[in-house]
Design goal:
alpha/beta; 14 helices
Length: 354
Amino acid sequence: MHNSETIASEKEELKQAVLNARPFKPLYVKFKVFYGCNLKCEMCNHWRETREPPVTPDRLKEVITELAEMGTKKIHISGGEPMLRPQIPDFVELASSLDIKVTMTTNGTLITKEKAKRLVEAGLRGVNLSIDSPIRKMHEKIRGVQGAFKATTKAVELFRRYKHKGKLTIRINTVVSRTNYETLATLPDLAHQLGADGINLIPVDDHCGEILSMRKKDITKFNEEIAPRIAERALELGLIVSDEDAFPFGRDESEVRLGRAGRYAFGFYEKHPCYAPWSHTLIDFNGNVYVCCMTREKIPPLGNIIHQSFKEVWNGDAYRQVRLKMHPPALKPCARCDDFIEENKKIWEMIGPY
């Protein structure tokens, strides 16, 4: 979410911005560049719905240039499936030329040798590829398309082939749900075999309903039988930083109770702020601007880049109102978010309580 060097050198400016609900810098920006998807994942609605056309490539390039002028250090590209837009390498190249680090999340099924090479040469610094089980049949059951496992694992190998052309980090994203959790013990071995640098276990979202959500007995079994094996092997292979990374639903009884309810922040934001409104933004495929993924479509958009400059949105009253409401307890959707907890802890330590 943040750039440690920038915050360390400007911590007093950030603290004053937080205290006065003023903007700081959009250090980390997520672009959801496309709504649709070519897969039919059971936990996702992107393939079930049709939405309006996305923001034009020219307008996105204008916004990327504007963000660079405002101090953005990182852009993350996602969707839907972003590779359904042919201009992605051009976006990466532009941002990289402006000294912005670019990363992307993709299902990988549309990655060819030419596209992998082009993206890495354009300056892509990180790619997260979605693999929901080391077992082919289970992954394709979840993703809803035969051949998806082969295509995605091939994409990992292609990015590995060209990563020497840039500073590329390859990570595997895995949504952990009732469907797949029992199959995940050997996930670290698959990631290592494919040449990935890390794995990221993502707890299934609450909007997926009771069919996919983890029951208490599922979390207990996962924590006792599966997660310890993942943690041991992933740490051995250097795929995670801490064994905590293998327990997305929490470990002790109080955390598991909150995790079962989808409150993956485990109470953190009842006593601490989230600094995302001062250092992060999400720009949706239709130009709507939100603080983050968790607030997307849960609170009204803060503006729209089709009709406004991003700077107008960032400095506008709607963003200010969110900043005013972020002091503990934070916004209601924050209770379900585990994205920025470690980053927020570091910022809290840097700028101190207030």
